[in-house]
Design a protein that fits this description.
302 residues, alpha/beta, Rossmann fold, Alpha-Beta Plaits, 2 domains, 6-stranded mixed beta sheet, 11 helices, binds adenosine-5'-triphosphate
């Protein structure tokens, strides 16, 4: 039986359809990413799976227990790191951890093995109030607190939002170690670059899952030839490209434009359609799509 199973789950808030018939399953030892922008419905799904919110329709089970009938059992067996860290700001690092251990009827010592690698990094600051920690340290403490009762399933809602790049990388390394211990991990993120660090991902937008697969397969399913283009006037170039009949989509991506074409074209062929005098430093190269390209492609179809 999967660690998490969701079948046709929907939830509305008034007129807002936050989740629209979501289905997914996550195995033990799997790191599963829920990838989507703000407002996609990620937190709503987390709240349903951690038994804090009821779905309107559909069924879901976590660690083999139904989220409605066996909510007490689920609360004992899962760890949850909500979007905004759930730490007590006035309590010290050590007091926070002891508090979470106590409410789950355990001790720091009993499960120290599971959090050792993470907690060791913040232990030098154990007398510091949680409110005075950096973002990266808060994140490590929140993860330690979510793990202290040895959960079978871990829910992490945007754990890396607002955390510096080095801490983000360290955090993903920690998740890899945890899944190797057999814990199922459902993690949400708005950062597309983090998607490739998951075993499988679901792309979610406006309450709907657009696609579920491994990051590699998701990227492979991108349907068009793709080029990165840069010039001294990307704004105008974007408008020009969007008017070409070979263009399927043209979108800004940092300092480049990503151009998807209906059929495969040589770089020279594309250049020959542009008034190159207007773009003295034009640069164009075929590229492999990444998850963000696919996400935007799928979003266009919704
Ligand atoms: N309590 C609520 N009352 C009304 N609407 C809500 C409530 N909670 C969420 N929503 C709406 O439901 C939709 C999904 O929100 P949700 O918080 O699940 O998304 P999210 O992907 O987690 O994004 P975020 O990171 O912004 O929280 C959004 O349109 C949001 O405005």
């Amino acid at each position: 039986m999967p660690a998490i199973e969701v079948n046709n789950t929907s939830r509305t808030y008034g007129k807002v359809q936050a989740l629209n018939s979501i289905s997914l399953s996550v195995e033990y030892g799997e790191l599963f990413g829920l990838i989507g922008p703000d407002g996609a419905g990620k937190s709503t799904l987390f709240r349903i799976l951690t038994t804090l919110l009821l779905a309107d329709t559909g069924t879901a089970s976590v660690a083999g227990h139904d989220v409605v009938q066996s909510y007490r059992q689920i609360r004992k067996e899962v760890g949850y790191m909500p979007g905004r860290f759930s730490l007590y700001q006035d309590l010290t690092v050590e007091e926070n951890l002891r508090f979470f251990a106590t409410i789950f009827n355990t001790t720091i010592e009993e499960n120290y093995n599971l959090i050792k690698d993470i907690y060791e990094q913040i232990e030098p600051f154990k007398k510091r109030p949680a409110g005075k920690l950096s973002g990266g340290m808060k994140q490590k403490l929140a993860l330690s607190c979510a793990l202290i009762h040895k959960p079978k399933v871990l829910f992490l809602d945007e754990p890396t939002t607002g955390v510096d790049a080095v801490s983000r990388q360290e955090f993903w390394d920690m998740l890899k170690n945890l899944k190797e211990k057999g814990i199922a991990i459902l993690v949400s993120t708005p950062y597309m670059d983090e998607a490739s660090l998951c075993d499988r991902i679901a792309l979610i937008q406006s309450g709907k899952i657009l696609q579920t697969d491994t990051p590699e397969e998701i990227v492979k399913s991108y349907p068009s030839p793709l080029y990165a283009i840069r010039s001294n006037n990307n704004y105008e170039l974007l408008k020009v490209l969007r008017d070409k009949n070979y263009t399927k989509s043209a979108l800004p991506f940092g300092e480049y434009l990503h151009l998807a074409t209906h059929t495969s074209m040589g770089v020279d062929e594309i250049i020959s359609t542009l008034n190159t005098g207007n773009y003295p430093d034009l640069e164009i190269k075929p590229i492999k799509p990444d998850i963000e390209d696919l996400f935007l492609e799928l979003s266009r179809e919704v």
